[in-house]
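Deviations from the work plan: none for this task. Representative record:
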Amino acid sequence: MSPLEPCIALVGNPNCGKTALFNLLTGSRQKIANYAGVTVERKEGRLTSPAGRRMQVLDLPGAYSLHPRTPDEAVTCDYILGRLPGEVPPDLIVAVVDATNLSRHLRLVVALKRVGYPLVVALNMSDLARRRGVAVEPAALAEALGVPVVSTVGVRRDGAASLVEWLDAHFSIVRVAVERVEPAEPDRGDVAATANDQREVERVLAAVGRLDPPIDTPSDRIDGIVLHPVFGPLILAVTLFLMFQAVFAGARPFMEALTALVAMVAGWINASIAPGLLRSLFVDGILAGAGSVVVFLPQIVLLFAFILVLEDSGYLPRAAFLLDRLMGGVGLSGRSFIPLLSSFACAIPGIMATRTIPNPRDRLVTILIAPLMTCSARLPVYTLLIGAFIPNRTLALGVGLQGLVLFVLYAVGLLSAFVAAFCLQFATGKRTLQPLQMELPSYHWPSLRNLGIGLWQRIEVFVRRVGTTILALMILLWFLSSVPAPPPGFTGPAIEWSLAGRLGSFLAHVFAPIGFNWEISIALVPGMAAREVAVGALGTVYSLAATGQDVAGALTPIVAQAWSLPTALSLLAWYVYAPQCLSTLAVIRRETGGWRHPLLVAGAMFLAAYIAAGVTYHVARWWLGAG
Amino acid sequence: MLQRLIVTLVVVVALMQALRSLLPLRARVAVARWLQPRLPDRVIVWFAGQSACEACGGRVKPPSGQRTE
């Protein structure tokens, strides 16, 4: 950043649309959703106005006041109050407020005015306010507040035009502010100070003739059903159940098409390159390995489409509210629900989202149990095994058996997390009663643009991961599975003589009691980096071990033929618990400030995985009377 | 012979990529320091990312606009 470029900070209450505005201003694609606490760290971008003026734009986590209660609020307050060494304070604050809920959002504006920076208020969601009949004129609000006010609509492509226009027109003011303002300390933050600010807000609202929003909004009517003590939990359970059914059934044709594509490329390489090392590298290493993982992309896209629709519609905070009582029973609050639900996608953003939890004990417990939630990296493993061993049958009411098993696996992960939280109560001390206080945003129709951006980002992450980490590990595994070449007269598959084969045979002694063969044992080693790598590793191992079979196109039938049902169930149980993700352990270290907790998580989860897999294997053998 | 050469190159690049993906920043910087006299600067920048500047004693600058910390 050039030191002469003015710096604009977007500040406001959680879920007022700061990140949507940030994306509009800077052309970024930061994650946005219809609930509080999506942004937990500062993001920076650059705005070039139509007049060619360049400014740096900061998106800060939401804060209700300048007296932080959570780690994410502290980021915002420390930055504004100049408490972060080495950080240049802002030249202008854009206070983003929700135009449908001014009586609460303006309180922060009143506090920001006192700090002394140049300030402009962005009256966001002004379209929604107009539709509800609670809109105020920006000019009238500006006069009553004593600061400039512009209207914005963060979810519309041209929704930030008036703000950019204002910045262009007042650029000289912003430039003058490059001579930095020393921030004044905020008020004491006690009840009396807050009440004073609220009185000032009421005075402003009275001056602009704004009444409180009507009580019976469409959102309230929907909440009457969705938050009903009986129907609410039922609707939540049915929604999640349908989500997993659809993930399995809807993705099938796309998965089959991708599998056929991978098989076609493998066939073309087989026909074009003479047998030898290079052909083996492409077919057994790259296509059988990375190709086996990439075919699961449709399921991951469908799962995320559902999660994004739930996020964008505003349903997720309601789910947190519904689960508060249940989570209270295991020593957590409903606030932990959203980080845990984020962990369905990936534990890393889930763990980072715990910064919105004010109670340090609740936050620690949520961090420790987040890896038990079923992340999308487990999906390829689950799908492979369910596809191979669970018959594609329809039960009563059109419920698919495969989708039901997937739902049960997710439920087991969730249940295990709750049991772990309950046990951790005794290690971390019983929590003090903390009533859940969270904002329930209005329902929105999910924006197709947000959905498209969110899905594209997930596809990008998945494909990049397959193209970098997974591809690299598959090539290394292929290499270790191909050297040294077996001596003349060796009759078994060459892989058994290789370095990987010998390692697999050694590890098989450790994993034999829980039913794993040497091929699975090898796959678990590169699978330590990330869970889905194990699927690719199985593809490579079986491709090199197979004689004349086209693994690149069809790992599922080979696994179905080679393993017993108890072994498959045992591996499923292993993956419910195994902490096979180095990045998650690294994030736990960063968020807890030491190695003690990530090592505890890794040790406990490996132990749980081994015990669960062993119990599953032996119970299944006993039940089926086979091995 | 050519096949062996291509395969060796692919395996070396895969090894570098795996290290780049899995090693934490500090370890990557240490490896980059060791690699620095042996490999071209461009490879070091790719491998160590924003820490390339530090890894190479300030000789290799990070791509413009990136921070060095």
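Residues 59-69 of chain B have pLDDT under 50 and may be disordered.
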